[in-house]
Amino acid sequence: MKRVSQTIMQKMHSVESKTVSTSLSKVECYVCGKGLEDGHSITAKTLPNGIVLFCDVHYSLQ
Fold this sequence. Notes:
This protein has one helix spanning 56-59, and strands at residues 42-47, 50-55. By secondary structure, the protein is mainly beta. Strand 1 (42-47) and strand 2 (50-55) form a beta hairpin. The longest helix has 4 residues, at 56-59.
């Protein structure tokens, strides 16, 4: 299996008067379910019903 290097970068600012929360979810293609760990790149596309993620194979078909 091919190893994929993954990096997440986030710039944080100190906010004294507000609560800051973050969330994380697995990034995978809406069509086939494959993601970064499978060696694919993922691209977000805004559709009328919301933002959808596609792998490099299925994004080119849209």
